[in-house]
Design goal:
Blueprint lengths: L2 E6 L18 H6 L6 H17 L8 E5 L5 H6 L5 E5 L7 H13 L4 E6 L1 H11 L5 E5 L11
Parallel strand pairs: 1-2, 1-4, 2-3, 4-5
Helix pairs in contact: 4-5
């Protein structure tokens, strides 16, 4: 059974929509300017399409999902209708890059076959710093500057 680590950076992309060059370190300013989260919606679009594809496959694979709690993955996987979800990292309060790193370290430690995430270039850098070249990474673009090669 394939094991996928799934993660959302819930603040990815907020800065660009209000004239900032990203969200790292400026979330409060982005919110002050009227930014609203976009990453979970982008993640749900991808998850719903993936669910549709596997539900219509001749041999629909069972997938073991590893994720972080609440808005960093668990909520979206449940909303998309997936089963087999294991929360391996509980987000303590406001999510940060530290939580991304900790969650991905749990994924890698559990031997996932793929880390699939929704975020921007900063999230991609954080994740790839943890996975190295040993674990494949695939991104759902939701940031401001999309230059990383992990985005499909």
């Amino acid at each position: 059974m394939p094991r996928i680590g799934f993660l959302i950076n819930p603040i990815a992309g907020m800065g660009g929509r209000v004239g900032l060059k990203g969200t790292d370190g400026v979330v409060a300013e982005a919110i002050r300017r009227g930014a609203t989260p976009v990453a979970e919606r982008r993640a749900l679009e991808a998850l719903h399409e993936f669910k549709r594809l596997i539900d219509h496959a001749t041999q629909s694979p069972a997938i073991a999902w590893l994720t972080a709690s609440d808005g960093m993955g668990d909520d979206a996987l449940g909303a998309a209708g997936f089963a087999g979800i294991e929360v391996v990292y509980a987000v303590p309060n406001e999510p940060s890059a530290r939580d991304t790193n900790a969650a991905v370290a749990k994924f890698v430690g559990a031997g996932v076959d793929l880390v699939w995430f929704c975020g921007g270039d900063g999230t991609a850098r954080d994740i790839c710093a943890v996975t190295g070249e040993a674990t494949p990474v695939l991104g759902i673009p939701s940031g401001v500057k999309m230059y990383s090669g992990v985005f499909g």
